[in-house]
Design a protein that fits this description.
With 184 residues, the protein is mainly alpha-helical. Helix content is 46%, strand content 8%. The strands form 2 sheets. A two-stranded antiparallel ribbon has the order 1-4. A two-stranded antiparallel sheet has the order 2-3. A hairpin with a 3-residue loop joins strand 2 and strand 3. Helix 3 packs across helix 4 and helix 5 (134-146) packs across helix 6 (152-165). The chain is globular and about 60 Å long. The protein starts with 13 loop residues before the first strand and ends with a strand.
């Protein structure tokens, strides 16, 4: 009926691109700096030796929490986290982005320092906005991450996880969930 998959009612789910995913994580954690315009931000340290050396640093301050469109791009040294998530190499022309799903991407979303910090901020935000019970915190974390309440089954499993490993573990899982990283 719609073999070319052009109609929205039947569109295939697709993964967020690297920059949009970074921005979505910042928005959900409550740390997105939405100031518009002005100079871009530099998420690297520059050292002049025999050749320029760029070392990327973790975005851990409000000036580095701006939208990715304001990121200063170094053509010779791609940012490893974004590259893992299929951000194109800025040194090359890229007419179409690659769209892959790999184990390395899942590991980066679970263990990257930026993602761990933002999961912590999301956990703090869910704790602050919800009551003291694990059930209320789970419900708030789902609302922040997925814009919906958890099902009974999800809630039961999430409460068990929060009671044994803490809210941070749940928030890490939510930021790595397919529902968060893809558009349906």
């Amino acid at each position: 009926m719609d073999a070319q998959n052009r109609l929205l009612w039947r569109v295939n789910p697709r993964r967020l691109d690297a920059e949009s995913l970074r921005d979505a994580v910042l928005a959900v954690s409550g740390k997105l700096n939405s100031s518009m315009g002005g100079p871009g931000y530099r998420d690297f340290e520059y050292t002049e030796a025999y050749a320029p050396i760029y070392r990327y640093k973790t975005a851990d301050s409000p000036d580095l929490w701006r939208r990715s469109i304001y990121r200063f791009v170094v053509r010779t040294t791609p940012q490893q986290f974004l590259t893992t998530l299929d951000c194109p190499n800025p040194a090359n022309l890229t007419p179409a982005r690659a769209a892959t799903t790999t184990a390395l991407q899942a590991l980066a979303l679970l263990n990257n320092e930026f993602m761990l910090q933002q999961a912590g901020y999301l956990a703090a935000r869910a704790e602050q906005k919800a009551g003291a019970t694990a059930s209320e915190q789970v419900c708030r974390a789902f609302e922040l991450a997925f814009a919906r309440r958890p099902t009974e089954q999800e809630s039961a499993g999430a409460v068990k996880l929060v009671n044994t490993q803490g809210l941070l573990s749940l928030c890490r899982a939510l930021l790595n969930a397919n529902e968060f990283v893809s558009i349906d």
